[in-house]
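Let's practice the habit of predicting before peeking. Look at the sequence and jot down your guess about where helices and strands might fall. Then scroll down.
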Amino acid sequence: MPSATPAPAAAPDLTIVYDRRSLGIVNTSTGPVDLSGLALVQGTTSLPAAHWQQYLSGSLSAFPARDCLQVWSASESADLPAPSGCRYVRGVTYLAGPVMFWTQVSFDVQWNGRALASCTAGAGRCPVDLP
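Done guessing? Here is the structure:
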């Protein structure tokens, strides 16, 4: 008797891609998503998606598939490459000093204050499904 083939798992809406130098928020869904309520939070440090608004090419409320936002240290001497899976970097922002919280400890991805995912420091990738 034939066995059923499991359906492939759906891709997450977003993938947070990070290393010791940068962090990217990549829309890994098949269409535009609303990032306007998104924030990365670790303790008292919060990096809301709205932080990119002033540097953004496009809209947070209709953020295109396979595009990304990126953040890295202001002390980098040159632009860093786009994160894996990112077709086009829509916005870059810079952080001063040792504020790159994703390199030290786990952090949360929140939507309007509600936790969606917890990302482990050093893991390098964190899938996130939006509400």
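How did you do? The chain has no helices and nine strands.
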